[in-house]
Amino acid sequence: MAHNQYLIIVFLSIALLLNSCGSAKKVKINKASKAVKLTENITAKPLETEFKPLKTSKKLSVAERVDRYVKTFAEVAQQEMKSYDIPASITLAQGILESGMGDSRLATQANNHFGIKCHKEWRGKRIYHDDDEKGECFRVYKDPRTSYRDHSLFLTTRSRYDFLFDYKKHDYKSWAKGLKKAGYATDPKYPDKLISLIERYRLDRYDLKKRKTKKVQEKTVTLADNKVHQVQKGDTLYSISKKYQVDLQLIVQENKIEDNNIFLGQNLIIPQAQ
Question: What is the CATH number of the domain that holds 228?
């Protein structure tokens, strides 16, 4: 009897188990709810060296951290200036300020060195960070170099920044004030901070300068109302008189020249034209 009861209990247990498995509902996965993996969509010239995020160095002084940052990114800023006409000094100053010298959360976790937010057109990865408002959306880049390129594109593809490119490339003060005027930052002291960084750390030395053709300049010294001309190779009294638009005889008389002879290196007083 006990054996039969045991068999009945086993049979009922198996039956209940099979019934519960058969009646279990399948959970449908809504494909639309799956997270879409966003990729960066920066159309630009090919990037060269890829940089890894700077390691946080709390023990370094501010000057040492700035120096470390500049040594790492000065060449990148110059290449961006060459391609997009944005002063390297401005780019470096913004990078230092916006990224906390490369040690901020956005810089170390998102490679975002310029505090550029997502905006509507961004299709890349994103990170949320407290800024003007809590939990704002910021762009994530694969490396800092891409951040520098996107900064260039950000300024050159938005009409509100167009007027900046009317300034001279080495007029970093106008650029700093213009960035604030165009709405790049809300901090009223933003221009002063950029200018202070540029002047304190001489960042303007990284601004590319046009190569000037060296010319042998004739030495002229102003003496009272007259000038002194140092005779150069090929000079004649006639050519000198034409250069200064002064009568040849006035030069001869002023310098007591005999037989119209002059020699290399001679200093001639050039009188005012009468």
Answer: 3.10.350.10
The strands making up 220-223's β-sheet, listed across from edge to edge, are 220-223, 226-230, 267-270
Torsions phi, psi for 145 (to 5 deg)? -60, -40
So what's the pLDDT on residue 174?
Answer: 97
Q: What is the average per-residue pLDDT within 181-186?
A: 94
Note the pLDDT tens digit of each residue in 99-151: 999 999 999 999 999 999 998 888 899 999 887 788 899 999 999 999 999 99
Domains: count for the chain: 2
Angle ∠(166,46,43) on CA atoms, nearest 5: 65
Q: Is 134 inside a domain boundary?
A: yes
For residue 224, pLDDT beyond 90:
no
Answer yes or no: is 156 within a domain. yes
Domain ranges, residue 243 = 220-270
Contact 73, 92 (CB under 8 A): yes
